[in-house]
Write a structure and sequence with these properties.
2 copies of one chain form a homodimer.
Chain A: H1 4-16, H2 22-51, H3 123-133, E1 145-150, H4 161-179, E2 182-186, H5 200-210, E3 216-220, E4 224-226, E5 243-247, H6 249-253, E6 261-269, H7 272-282, H8 291-301, H9 312-322, E7 331-334, E8 341-342, H10 350-363, H11 365-368, H12 380-387, E9 402-404, H13 421-440, E10 445-446, E11 457-458
Parallel strand pairs in A: 1-2, 1-3, 5-7, 8-9
Antiparallel strand pairs in A: 3-6, 4-9, 5-6, 10-11
GO cellular component, one term (chains A, B): trans-Golgi network
Protein name (chains A, B): Glycosyltransferase 7
Transmembrane segments (chains A, B): 30-53
Chain lengths: 465, 465
């Protein structure tokens, strides 16, 4: 094919040589046309490569994604239930079979997976470089979450401890499957001295390095369960932050309470800031030289702290209080929904919540429609229409997002003496069955009695009409 | 912009009118060029839309997918480790937020999730219709697997039963995460009378209906673990079959042994044949009128059957033996690798296997390279070069794919009297740690002692060089 330059020269030369025959006109015109076509072709190709776009027409949306109804309270960002657009291209997303030989951060001898090693440097650039080398993981990376949880390496002291942990794990796996989230369960201490709640940062650091394709690591304690299987994290709210925890700003800054936040559930961005933060946070731990000193500092700072030893939750509040610019400003204290919810203010309300949702389903045919588990998210906007006045907190009747059994200690059985072991056990069974019902619905079954995990019934067609 | 036709007419008209000025030449040439460009642009756009291609240049493959080295034994299909091509487009694969209002099988009142209802009719067409309505799930559907496993609803009788089940579950989740497979853990009997091993078909049927996007359902018993975290099912081998089990044809057809196959691990296609098959298979179960009769038939047919009652494994062999055309011909009896492996012939060899693999790693720098968990599959072809003579069976030293602790009964603790409870426990701990080491490697750690699940060490850079 003639290049644009060539055809241009051809024209110039012809112009020089005066008149042209009809054939000459035709051929030179054709060359110009073809040349233009070629250039355009290359341009489109290059542009599409650059922007990684696949120009497929979007299928006609029926239950299309819409924002949540604006919340009543002023100044509150509306929560967006689902991504702004459908995803028309169904080709498998990840290219798991190519790892180019080009060097990247993994080839650096100085890289350490250990929390005791200094934080990795230039982690943001290193992740970016890895993503460039593995472009199939780059698309959609900003919303990609990896859930991390775990428990101890040995059997639980509580005879039914592992039974409960198994059910809590299943609950998390169910949530992840419904939403396309990956999950890693860790059951060994990466730093042997960082026992119990301290085990989180060693696990999270190693996970961040093992998963450069994940933007967010979502740590969830082994005794926390999803009780709203539909709800999705409003990631847009956290765009400018690197760590999300549940808590009450007043209790942090005014009351200075060690329970002003909960460190059992957190969302942390896979970035340099997080690596640096975890290094500081971990330095308050039992393996660190400053452990005893931190025990004193934290006990002094937080009057309501019940035990002397340094703990990671007090440590986190301390960093929020004392180092606002470096850490506090990047930590989002979420209090508008149960990003983490205290079971005692939740479990007693589950029956009422069940009734309320059932009432809605009785009225709305669309919500009774059977469907594949994988398209459950399509029904979120339909639910939202009817849940807009439900209320997210203790005075409302929305399904609580996450119910956390703080104080119940299912593994050791050393529950807070405020309540009995039976109370805790029944509450956990109930919450887990409440959640399981939302999952099993897509498999055609449900528990009639939330306290009886052994029995399910077939759900009739068009239930509960 | 001038259309191609317009510029063509312009040229004709100019030709008619004789001579042209330089400016006229320039403008008409430009129009031609631009016109050609526009047409080419539209053509490329249309073509790309039609073929759903994103014209990203494929990154230079280094560890590109290749078939396994041909196996020595004649007539054996070579096992293909990875898909034939990389997947350049990283856009999220599934559109989970659209469920068109068009009617499909879910809207049929006669659809039942229960194993006791007659099998669904025209299931293949119904799945196809659903996929048409949900095109993002159609691409890649032929290799899409959903793993299913589970255990009882109540705590295990064995005090460490749930502890072991939790670890077996983690093991499966690890395998699934490495290979992009979904997993559903069921812990309630969908048909209350179909207890124990009978619980599989009720679970699998409901799962098939809940997951029309899954081509294969892969049932794995709660006491089976993945001990080769890299190996992938050679799905191409099963193209013409609908059910895959591990077994020995000689033991089925000649010896007529009830242990000629193992029903604890099976791969079943989400299709009409499977629905019909499961209906027949389940009709031998405790909830069915023919249960006692089947007990007699199976005990008579299989001389080595140890207990009188009908069981699903004997039932399956029976169907293979007696109904070859209807069932047998579509059931692939896999005996060339540990699609399911008996732990007693495996666990004693794990230390040797560990050494052999370590020897290879010492020699091959590429295999020592740290990498993201998500691209572990890239290294399969590199390993294959060195494993081609390793051998898949009991006389070889390949990592066994799946190790099944038949006879150990971790949940009830009622193990076969051939071995002690301690023997079983140690064997399970060892196999699980052997597998965990393959996973933890990407997180920077490993167990030194396979019998000590509590301890891991940091893996040095370039280990084990």
């Amino acid at each position: 094919m003639v290049s644009p330059e060539q055809s241009h020269y051809q024209n110039l030369s012809m112009a020089k040589h005066g008149g042209r025959s009809k054939t000459t006109y035709f051929f030179s015109d054709t060359f110009l046309y073809a040349g233009g076509a070629l250039v355009a072709f290359l341009l489109v190709w290059a542009l599409l490569s650059f922007f990684s776009l696949s120009p497929n027409p979007t299928p006609t949306p029926s239950f299309s994604s819409t924002s949540f109804t604006e919340r009543k309270s002023a100044g509150v960002e509306s929560l967006d239930a689902s991504p702004a657009q459908g995803c028309p291209d169904g080709a498998s997303s990840f290219d798991m079979v190519h790892d180019p030989q080009d060097q990247n951060f993994y080839d650096d001898q100085k890289l350490s997976y250990s929390i005791e090693a200094p934080p990795v440097k230039n982690w943001d650039e290193k992740r970016r470089e890895w993503l460039k080398q593995h472009p199939s993981f780059a698309a959609g990376v900003e919303n990609r979450i990896l859930m991390v949880t775990g428990s101890q390496a040995k059997p639980c002291k509580n005879p039914i401890g592992d039974y409960l942990l198994l059910k809590f794990f299943k609950n998390k796996v169910d949530y992840c499957r419904r939403h396309g989230i990956e999950i890693f369960y860790n059951n060994v201490l990466f730093q042997p001295k960082m026992f119990s709640f301290w085990a989180k940062t060693p696990t999270v650091k190693a996970t961040m390095l093992a998963h450069p394709e994940a933007e967010w690591i979502w740590w969830i304690d082994s005794d926390a369960a999803f009780t709203d299987m539909d709800f999705k994290l409003p990631l847009d709210r956290y765009k400018a932050h690197n760590l999300v925890i549940h808590g009450w700003p007043k209790l942090i800054y005014e009351k200075k309470s060690w329970t002003s936040i909960n460190a059992g559930v957190f969302l942390i961005r896979n970035c340099q800031w997080a690596m640096d933060f975890m290094d500081v946070w971990a330095s308050m731990g039992p393996q660190a030289p400053g452990y005893d000193k931190w025990g004193e500092i934290l006990s002094t700072t937080f009057e309501d702290k019940i035990f002397q030893e340094s703990d990671d939750q007090s440590g986190l509040v301390y960093l929020l209080l004392k180092e606002k610019e470096k850490w506090g400003d990047k930590i989002y204290v979420e209090s508008e929904f149960y990003f983490e919810g205290y079971w005692m203010e939740i479990v007693g309300r589950l029956d009422n919540i069940t009734e309320r949702y059932k009432e809605i389903e009785k009225r709305v045919g669309t919500l009774r429609r059977r469907h594949a588990e994988k398209v459950s998210e399509s029904y979120i906007p339909v639910w939202e229409e009817y849940l807009k006045d439900a209320g997210f907190g203790r005075d409302g009747w929305r399904r609580p997002f996450i119910t956390h059994f703080t104080g119940c200690q299912p593994c050791s059985g050393d529950h807070n003496k405020m309540y009995s072991g039976q109370t805790c056990f029944d509450a956990m069974q109930k919450a887990l069955a409440f959640a399981d019902n939302q999952v099993l619905r897509n498999y055609g079954f449900m528990h009639q009695d939330l306290l009886d995990p052994s029995t399910v019934n077939l759900v009739p067609f068009d239930y509960p009409a």
